[in-house]
Amino acid sequence: MISQFFVLSQRGDNIVFRDYRGEVQRATAEIFFRKVKFWKEDGQEEAPPVFNVDGVNYFHVKVVGLMFVATTRVNLSPSFVFELLQRIARVIKDYLGVLNEDSLRRNFVLVYELLDEVIDFGYVQTTSTEVLKSYVFNEPIVVDAAHLSPLGPAALFMQGTKRIPGTAVTKSVVANDPTGRRREEIFVDIIEKISITFSSSGYILTSEIDGTIQMKSYLTGNPEIRLALNDDLSIGRGGQSVYDYRSSIGSGVVILDDCNFHESVRLDSFEADKTLALVPPDGEFPVMNYRMTQEFKPPFRINALIEEAGILKAEVILKVYAEFPSSITANTISLQMPLPKYTMRASFELEPGAVGQTTDFKEANKRLEWNLKKAIISYHGFYIVGGCEHTLRARLTFSQETHGNITKESGPVSLTFTIPMYNASKLQVKYLQITKKSGSYNPYRWVRYVTLSNSYVARL
Amino acid sequence: MAPPAQSQRSPSPSQPSGKSEVSDLKLQLRQLAGSRAPGVDDSKRELFKKVISYMTIGIDVSSLFGEIVMCSAASDIVLKKMCYLYVGNYAKVNPDLALLTINFLQRDCKDEDPMIRGLALRSLCSLRVANLVEYLVGPLGSGLKDSNSYVRMVAVMGVLKLYHISASTCIDADFPAVLKHLLLNDPDTQVVANCLSALQEIWSLEATTSEEASRERETLLSKPIVYYLLNRIKEFSEWAQCLVLDLVAKYVPSDSNDIFDIMNLLEDRLQHANGAVVLASTKVFLQLTLSMTDVHQQVYERIKAPLLTLVSSGSPEQSYAVLSHLHLLVIRAPYIFSSDYKHFYCQYNEPSYVKKLKLEMLTAVANESNTYEIVTELCEYAANVDIPIARESIRAVGKIALQQYDVNAIVDRLLQFLEMEKDYVTAEALVLVKDLLRKYPQWSHDCIAVVGNISCKNIQEPKAKAALIWMLGEYSQDMHDAPYILEGLIENWDDEHSAEVRLHLLTAVMKCFFKRPPETQKALGAALAAGFADFHQDVHDRALFYYRLLQYNVTVAERVVNPPKQAVSVFADTQSSEIKDRIFDEFNSLSVVYQKPSYMFTDKEHRGLFEFSDELANLSIGAELADTGVPGHSVEANDKDLLLSTSEKEETRGPSNYDAYSAPSYDSSLVSIAASQTQSDLISSSTTVPGNAPHSSFAIDDLLGLGVSVTPSPAPAPAPPLKLNPKAVLDANSFQQKWRQLPISLTQEYSLSPQGVGALTIPQTLLRHMQSHSIHCIASGGQSPNFKFFFFAQKAEESSNFLVECIISTSSSKAQLKIKADDQSASQEFSSFFQSALSKFGLP
C-alpha cells in the first residue's frame, strides 16, 4: 500500500497532498523535490522514476509538466504504483476535462474527493471514472481549453485539421453542457509512434511501430460497441524471429508482433472476424496496445552527410524525403544534428524558394536545428506534403583541426514530426458499431489516425 | 495524517503567511454557523474551500476546528465531505476537539443514505485518536453487516485502521474473524479484496506474538482460499487482481496438475493492458514452475512478447519498471533472449537510466551469432553525446570481449577507440585493454603497439592511468620507452594525487627493474625514496616493503613482485548468485529496480507481507559465542536472512539501512577466512566458502577431537527405528529453498528438563548434542531467554530430508518445534526421535 500521494508543480509547490497512513513524515514533498532537482548519482543527471531515501520509496510520474508522487516504506510492485499514478492522473483529467496546474488548483476540493474514494488507507478501491461518479459530488470548474498548450495526444487533433471540434476531447465526463443536453459522441484514436534507425548508407537497421487504439466515450447508457479491424490482421505467435521481413513483403497483410487489451474488451469473435466487443467505461482508456516490427514504408527518408571542406571547415548536407501520398500533410517537423564539439560557427543555405523553414545553430550544446514547421512548397500548398523533398546545406567552422574521423564526432540526425490522418502500420478500424435498440439513435463517431516520431534516427 | 509540522514551514513569498487570514475565516465561519438563510450553504462551501486550500499549502488552520465542526451540522454532502477531510487532518493533534465530532459522525453512521453512512464511518476511523476507539467498535460492527457494499468496503478498511490505533480493541472485538467470513462469502469483490489486504496486514503483524495468527496467515495460502479467489479473479478490479496474484505467487501447489490448472486459468492475464497485472501473473508463472525446468523455460518464452509490448506501450516510467524486470530475466537466461537483441538497442531520446539497463542486457545476450552486430551498435554509442552512456558502451564492448572466445574483431574495435582521441574514450579503452591482456596475454603484441603511442599526459583519470602504468610494468620488455616513461612519471610524483596510481607506479617500476635493470635502477631509487616520504600509509608501506625485499634477496623479490602469471579465466561477478536469487524471489517489487534484495533498503516491519520475515527480532548471540570460542556457525536468526551467506559480506561493503541486522560474528576458524576474503579482491572464490561453512566447521569439530561421536548414540530408550545419516549434507541455500517450499507437517510444543535449560547457557552445546544424534544445525541465533535453531537431518538410506525450526524459551522451559519433511509420513517418527534426543540434553 502507498503511504502518501501528492502532486507537485514544476516549481515544487504542493498542489494536492494526501497522507493516507501517517507513517512517513510530512516533509517528504520537499525531500523529494530537492532530490529530483539536484539529482546526481551514478554519473547520471536525471532522477529515475523511483528511488529510496532513508527507507522511504518515492515513485513519480510526469504528466503535463506536473509530478504525481507516491511514497511508501513497503517493497511494492513498481509497475503497480506507476500504473496507479498514471490512472489517477487520467481519472482527474476525465473529471476536469483539462489537466494542468491551473485546473488542478481550481478544483482541488474535487480532486481530494476523488482521491479519498480512489485510495483508502493506502489501498486502491477503484479507479473507474464511472464508479466514482456515484461517490463524488463536487462539480468541476472547467478551465478554458482555448489556451491549452499543445500537450498530449488529444491536442494533436486540434491542429492542422478542421474536421474535428477541438473542445470535444477536453470535455469533463460529469460537467453539464451549457445547452443542457449532452452531445452523444465517441472518439476512437489510432495513435502510432515510429522508431526507426537508418544506417549511414540509408538501410533500415531497426524499425518498430508502437500503437494504441484509444477510446473516449460520451455515450449515455453505456451501449455495447463493436470495433472491426483489418480482416487480414494476424498476431505473430510462435518462435519465428520478429525481425524476419521476408514473410511480409508486399503482401499487404498486417502482422502484429504482440498486443494487449483493456479489461473491458471481449475477444470472443476476434479470431473469426477481427472484431473487438466492449462496453466502454466512461472516460479515456486504451482499448488495445500493439507492437509491430513487420517491414513498413517509413514516412520519411533522411540523407545526411558531413565532409571536410578545407582546413577548419566542413560541409553538412541534409535531405528529407516525404514518402507518403500528397493528400497527406505532416506538421511540426524538426531535424536535429549534434555537431563536433569544436564547431564555432555554422552558416546555412536553404534551397531556393524555401519558405517557413528555420535553421539554428545551438552554441551551448553544439547542435544544428532545422525546423519545417510552416514549410511551403510553392506548387503543393502549405505544410510538408507527401512526395516532396527538402535540402539544407550548412557550412561549419571549427576552432581546432579535426582528427580525421569527423563523422564519428557528429550525429546521429534525429527527426521529430506529427502526421495526422496517417498510419504507417495500415491497421484500420473498418467500422465502429454501436448496438442500441432505438433506430433514431445515431451518435457522432470519430475515428482518427495520427503518426508520431518516437526515435527517428539516421546515422552518419 | 499530517503532523503539525506545518507551522515550522516557512511560507514562500507567493503564499500568504496565514495568520490574519485564518482569524478572518474564523470570524466568517462563526457568523454562518447558526444561520439558516437561503444560500448559506454556498457561502459555507466557499469558506471551507479556502480552509482546505490553506491546509494543503501548509498553513496551520487547526484553530478553526470548533467552527468547522459547528458549520457541518448541515446536511449538504459536499460540505460534509470537506469537513471530514479537515477533521481527519487535525483530529490527531486536537484529541479533545475530535471528541466534538464523534457525536455527529456516529449519527451519520446511521443515516439512511449509504453514501453518508460510508463516509461518516470512514472519517470516524480516520481520526486516529487512541482514546476514542471505544466509539469505533459499535459503528464498525454494524458497518461490516451493512446491506450496502460501499459501507462494508469502508468498514473493512476501518477495521484495519482500528487495528493500527489499538490492536487489542480490534482483536478483542473479534473483527479478524468477521473479515475472514466476509473474505469467503461477500458477493462484492472489492469487499473481498479489502478483507484480504486487511487480514494480510493484521495477521502478519500479529504473528510476531501469536502462534494462532501465524497459522491464520498460512491458511490464507491454503488451497481452498487460493482457489476460491482465483475462480473469481475476473470479477475483481485490476488492482485487486494484482493483490490476488501476489497471494497466488506464494501458494505452494500440491502437484503438477494444480500448477497447470492455475497457469491455464491465468493465461489471458498476460494480455492485460495494465502492466501491473501482467507482471503479477508473470511472477505466478515463474514461481510455480521453479521446480520444472522445461516448463520454466517455456514460461520465459511465453512472457517475452507481452513484456516487450509493455516496455514500448507504456509511459516512460512504466516501461522503465517493466524493462527492469526484463533485465533481470535476460541476465538469468540470456540464451532465451539472444535473438531479441535488437529490442535492447538504445534510442537516442531515452533517459540514461534506461540506456544503462539496455547496455547490460546487450552485454548479456551477446553470443557467437550476434556479437558482431551488437558490438557494431555499441561502437555507435561510444561517440554518443551522453558521455556516461558512451563510457558504459565501451565497457560493454570490453565485457563482451571478455566473455567471447573469438575476440579478434573486438580487439580491433577497442584499439580503434584508443585512436579516437577523446579523453574519456581513451580512458575507458585503456582499462579494458588491461583486463583483456590479463585474460588473453597472446594479444599483447597488437595492443602494446597501440598503447605505446598514447601519451601519459593526455590521461587524467586515475583508473586509466593505473591501467597504463600496469601495462608499462608488465610489458616493459616489449615497450621500448617503458623505463623512461615511468621515470617521467616518478619525477612528477608529488603531482600525482591518486594513491592508486602511485601504488601501481611502485609496482610497475619494480617489474621494469627486473627486466631492464640498468635502465631502471635510477628510477627505482627515486620511486622508493618518494614512496618513503609519501603521506599515504599504503604507499609508504609498499615502498618500504619493496626496499627490504630487495635488500634481502633480489631473486626472491622478483618471485614475489613479478611471478609468472596465469591468464585470468573468469572475472569475478560483482553480485553473488545468492543475491541474484534473492532478487528473483522478490520479482515484481522494488528489489528488481534497485537490484538489491529488500533487506538492504527496507525496514524490517515493512518487509512486506508473507515475507517469512522472522519473529524474534534482533536475535544475535554472535558476540557471546565468539567469546566462548566454540566452533559453530551462528548468524542472526531471521530465516530468510540468516541462511543467506552473503549478508555478512554486504555488511562490510557498505552501510545498509536494515537496522534489525546486527553484524554477525564468526567463530575464530571462520573469521580468518572471511577477513582474507574481504580484504583481497578474490571475489570469485568467496561465494563458495560460506555455503560450505557449516560442514567445514563440523569437520573442525572432529579434528579437534572434542569427543564428539558422529554416529547415533546407541539405542535411546524408546529407540525409534528411524535411521539418520550421520554425515548428512545440506547447504544453506537448499535449506532455505526447501524451507520455503515445504508445508509444515508438524508443529509441537515440548517441555525442556531443568538440566536442559541450564545447559543452554552455552547454546553451542545443544548443537553438539544434537549432532551426536545425527541432527545437524544449519543456523542458530537468539539471546537469553529466547533462542532459535534451524536443524536438518537426512534419512540414512535415502536422501529424504527433515527440516526443523526450534524455538526455545528458557524462561518458560518450552521448545516449539516446526518440522518440515520431504517425506511427510515419516515426520511423526522423526519428531519423536528429535524429542527423545532433546530430552537427553543436559543430562550427564
TrEMBL record, chain A:
Keywords: Membrane, Protein transport, Transport
Top-rank taxon, per record: Eukaryota
CC per GO annotation: clathrin adaptor complex; endomembrane system
Record-linked InterPro entries: Adaptor_comp_med_subunit (IPR050431), AP2_Mu_C_sf (IPR036168), Clathrin_mu (IPR001392), Longin-like_dom_sf (IPR011012), MHD (IPR028565)
Gene3D superfamilies for this protein: 3.30.450.60, Mu homology domain, subdomain B
Pfam families: Adap_comp_sub (PF00928)
Family as reported in the entry's similarity comment: Belongs to the adaptor complexes medium subunit family.
Annotated protein name in UniProt: Clathrin adaptor, mu subunit
Species of provenance: Parasponia andersonii (Sponia andersonii)
TrEMBL record, chain B:
Main location: membrane
Compositional bias per record (Basic and acidic residues), positions renumbered to this chain: 636-653
Segments for region (Disordered): 1-23, 628-661
Entries under InterPro entries matching the protein: AP_beta, AP_complex_bsu_1_2_4, ARM-like, ARM-type_fold, B-adaptin_app_sub_C, Clathrin/coatomer_adapt-like_N, Coatomer/calthrin_app_sub_C, TBP_dom_sf
This protein's UniProt keywords: Membrane, Protein transport, Transport
Regions of compositional bias (Low complexity) in chain numbering: 1-17
Gene Ontology cellular component list: clathrin adaptor complex; endomembrane system
Keyword Transcription: no
Record flagged with keyword tRNA-binding: no
GO biological process terms on file: intracellular protein transport; vesicle-mediated transport
Subcellular location: Endomembrane system
Sample GO molecular function, one term: clathrin binding
Stretches assigned to the Beta-adaptin appendage C-terminal subdomain domain: 722-839
Protein family according to the UniProt entry: Belongs to the adaptor complexes large subunit family.
Subunit and interaction comment: Adaptor protein complexes are heterotetramers composed of two large adaptins (beta-type subunit and alpha-type or delta-type or epsilon-type or gamma-type subunit), a medium adaptin (mu-type subunit) and a small adaptin (sigma-type subunit).
Function: Subunit of clathrin-associated adaptor protein complex that plays a role in protein sorting in the late-Golgi/trans-Golgi network (TGN) and/or endosomes. The AP complexes mediate both the recruitment of clathrin to membranes and the recognition of sorting signals within the cytosolic tails of transmembrane cargo molecules.
Protein name: Beta-adaptin-like protein
Source organism of this protein record: Parasponia andersonii
